[in-house]
Fold each of these.
Amino acid sequence: MSELQSMIVTPSPEAVSVHPQSIPIETSSSSFSNWGLDIHASGINGALKRWPKLDCQQLALYDRLPLEPSWKPYWPRPKTFRMTFPDGLEFLPPPKEKTSEPEQAGEKPVPETGGGDEAADAATPRKRTRLKPPSDALSLEDRLFYLLQPPLETWLAGQELIMPFEPFPYQYEGIAWLFSQGAALLADEMGLGKTMQTITAIRLLLRSGQVRKILLICPKPLIPNWQREFKTWAEELPVTLLEGDAARRKMLWTMPGIPILLANYELMVRDMEALEDDERPKFDLVVLDEAQRIKNRNSRTSETARAIPRKRTWALTGTPIENRPEELASLYEFMEVIPPRGTPDLRQLMKLSKEFILRRTKDLVMKDLPPRLDREEYLDLNPAQEYAYRVAEKEGIIQLNELGESISVQHVFELVLRLKQITNYDPLTGESAKLDRLMADMEEISASGGKAILFSQWTKTIDWIAAKMEGRNFGELIYHGGVPTKKREPILKQFKEDPNSHLLLMSYGTGAVGLNLQFAGYVFLFDRWWNPAVEDQAINRAHRIGQKTKVIVTKFISKNTIEERIDLVLQQKRELFAAVLGDGDNTNVSLSLNASEIFGLFDLKARHGKGTRKIAPPTVNSDAADTAA
Amino acid sequence: MTSDTVRDKMRLGFLTTVQTPEGSFVGGLLVTNHMGRPLEFQCTTPIKPNATQQILYGPTLKPFLMGELISKTLVERVGIAPDILLTEQEEVLELRPHVNVPVGLISLPARVKKAIADKSGSIGENSVTSDAAEASSEGNISSPAQSSEGAPSEKQVRLGRQWLRFHASHDDDRVKVSESSKSISADADLLEPFERVREALMEASRNGAGR
């Protein structure tokens, strides 16, 4: 109740009471003329006829002026939402003598200001690659984690994470994509830097505290390659190789504090099977390199890989589908984006691909990559070769026909192999039209200081070529399944660094996948593999990022031989697939010959099976794929 | 790199506010290490001044809301204390008398300042984060000579690629920041993190975190 109201209603004890009659009120009414009250004609207010009881109070004057209405500035305290970021792992910096040592911040050149601004302005604008929250990140905290990370260009160009080379924009995109994906299939075409993108994404995940324990599985021949690439792109990250006897390997599997464990497929299968369920370590991230290894979901490798406890799963392959779309389902099952034994149809596969596959082709992203010039050298066999070939072919066909109904693909395949070997060289006389041509080309290449890689299906052919080249000063080196693993890395190093080493003789099985030989400008395919996709993999050892000059690819094909016929069939298949899938992407399908096509090479008809069985060696990812004979 | 070494480096607090299409103000504070890697983020609920407040505060409303009310709350509640608070908004500079941390205002070229004020000072349907980023990019090489403040001033300090000025009542901030600015790379773009804060505020606004 206000002070004013109380003054009226409540009489003050000190107030002096007076009779109302003593108050001089004027009125216009006759009855109340003495009071001076104005009475309305309606007659209401009968109470006015009564004498009001009035009290008077004497009040003290205010000592300050009251202000109404009063207003006080009140602001509620804002509520806040707060999130912190996990601590990332810190690693010892690389040794100071390395060239990649970061410059001290204070010593960095300061961009010109003032008059140089316009020039700097022109140089400054650049694309920024920001991390995007994954589609399954629903909580605000999860989404803000990604949104508040610095752009990759800033992150990687900073003083904290040194990059030896500036990644290409599409590689930044790939790194950002991998970083955000819990399940990912990076299927970039060979040579676009899947390894580098994976290593950098791993590095960022470790440094931001998102992962702490990573398992990376790759084919055995690629172990040195991964070790080398880690040293190049993330020198500070400790990579532990799974090796040694069973006891040591068990210790490595279970020992805490190993951020990155590098294992090959064979040891992964063997050791995981040996470990009890409760002994199996849990990983924050499992990466499968050359993931087409698990395309058969019933294989031991697939089943074992799927059983590894993990939070994130990445698969890397340049050929996500080698033969059938179902192979993709096996990869998806490993990535846990479809239920076990799930069989998505083509439409579902395409939908899943949009979310979980990132695939770029050279045509799309590497417009500035030097061209690859393919030349098919059709060579006449030397006389002795010609004779040996015709005899072998004639006898072979006769033998096949004599087999009658018992003839199998394997019989035909054996004849094909025998004839292909003769097109390489005559085993009796050692004559070889291909070798003659190779020698001539190599004279020119070595004279100009160039480097060449030669691929053959046979280790024996490779050894034979090396023997023939002795004394020619080509500095030839051998790299195939027969070379012990420990000796392989020094061979690659010598080939790269020794100016007198001009030729690296490799087998498809050992050398076709994963190696970086972009300093070589020439590639020879001494004999042809069954699948052009594999040949492309081999060629892409040289024709890849970092290649400064055009790559000249020479494919030797002996005229009027089985090679010419195989090449024709493969070429037709390549054109067919290109028409179906588009020119930009013809490497993710198998172009291997099937049984019918093999029989067709000798005008024979397949007598067994449905004619679609693949008869080429099953894989080129291991040393086992090298043909020793 | 040991954690001790890392702590020797400066922690940066990027403080900004935005106005929603409904007229509310929200603020965000991103604390990063000296490389720009995030350590902590905070944002406020929207604060909407009523008509009386708008009339009575007049031109002091924004400095009060942005500097004293929102920014002060954020700084008081931060868990990982920054060594310096950076802002691109003049109004937020008014925070300085209320906190014990140096507050640096990034001097922007007038055209960049206008672009940010026009375009990125609000969040909503027509988000212009990319425009603001472009504007920020332009501002990367801001210099006193380019700024609206005119000729180079001794009162400004260079941090990363930007120039900072400080509250008139705390001139010693300049000395403090100069001493510890060595840990910040001369290449560091201190405008870029504001883009992240604005984007995060937009995301928080979409998620209703501020309601």
Note: The two ends of chain A are 112 Å apart (CA to CA).
Amino acid sequence: MESAFSAKNNPGAEERRKMLIAAIEQVARGNSAALKQVYDMTSAKLFGVILRIMHDRELAEDVLQDVYLKVWNRAGRFDANRASPISWLCVIARNAAIDGVRRQQRSDYLSGHAEADVLEEIEDDAVPADELLCNAEDNERMRRCMEALQDDHRKSIRMAFFDGLSHSELAERIGVPLGTMKSWIRRGLASLKGCLGGG
Amino acid sequence: MAVADDVLEPAEGVPDMQAGELALGVLEGTELAEARRRQLSDPDFAREVEWWNAQFGLMGQQVTGVMPPAGVWRAIESRIEGMGNHAPTELGRRAPAGWSIATALAGLGAAAAAIALYVSTPTGVPVPAPVPTPAQPARNVLIAQLSDEASGMKLASVVDPTAERLSLSISGLAAAPGKAPELWVVPEGGAPVSLGQIPEDGQLTRELSGEETRLLVAGALVAVTFEDADGTRHEAPTPPIVLAGPLDQV
């Protein structure tokens, strides 16, 4: 598991989270300076999410622009009682990256040729792990629940999530029949839900 | 890869996980369409998708952050300034080029491109003088193309948030006697909101209220059901959803 996924209590995290919520609320009122603040606090994380899925820096930069335009347009719909701000932003970024990739020819990405290069680049300007903006306890619970999954289930869900792959793409990558992959994902999600205790 | 068994093997005792599958992004084809319909018609399901999104959002934070180059923010800033001050001009510039949904859809994927609907551009629509209002950032035109090949039902929607205008091109929405097509918007993770009853065929353009404009944003779903033909806006859609699809930015 990544060292970035630490349960270490970051003393500034809760304050930063509140600042982020306040900034998003200002964005909803059309305050572009607040959007810059949201960008400064979150763009490295969201760029990481997008790059991981898109495997192409230029495309990822375009999608990152689109994501903050979406934030500008949708900030009024953010509800701090229902989602953490960084979760909300990650969902927007991830969906935008998946849309971007699926609108392109997938074959280049499926061959995985660009992966090594991108990962090397990531090493150069990686952002320290303590930039986490979320609740450390929630994070730790998610980490534990993922670790508790069967290996096949965990691997499939992680690849689906981090690489933005569909059922059939996962089946192809991992080399199992589609029905098996669907079953792994479904069983993995069921275990995860049971462990997280929500729904 | 040729996969023979694309039927899910019976998973005894494993509850329905479609909300999680939708949030995870693994669904495709008819399964994706079915999940989106459920998201429209079943508030419990929609809430469950939202719950999964929150969980997966936590996982997203495991990704190592990467500093984007400085040019990205400058580009965002100039796009926002452009939207605030010049959106109507941009709309006007597009119109003479024969802008159409068919053209706009060229980049929006094979499914959408397969739809042969053509909706004429709102050319000549009087555009209000540019008034930069920070509280209401001007936005791009949005479209949703809905069709069902089996029944031949088609609906093209164009939302112009700047002019607060909705244009529809409708064909083949044949309702049973006493029923009429009703248009819905479903915000991400929210409950469907009626936009009122619409004709079975033809063109319709109407003003949008501020509230309606606020709901009709990229990513929101537009859907059609058949409801009692009483001309009212109903509280909730009656399944089945006959057409549904997301609004996309042009």
Note: The two ends of chain B are 33 Å apart (CA to CA).
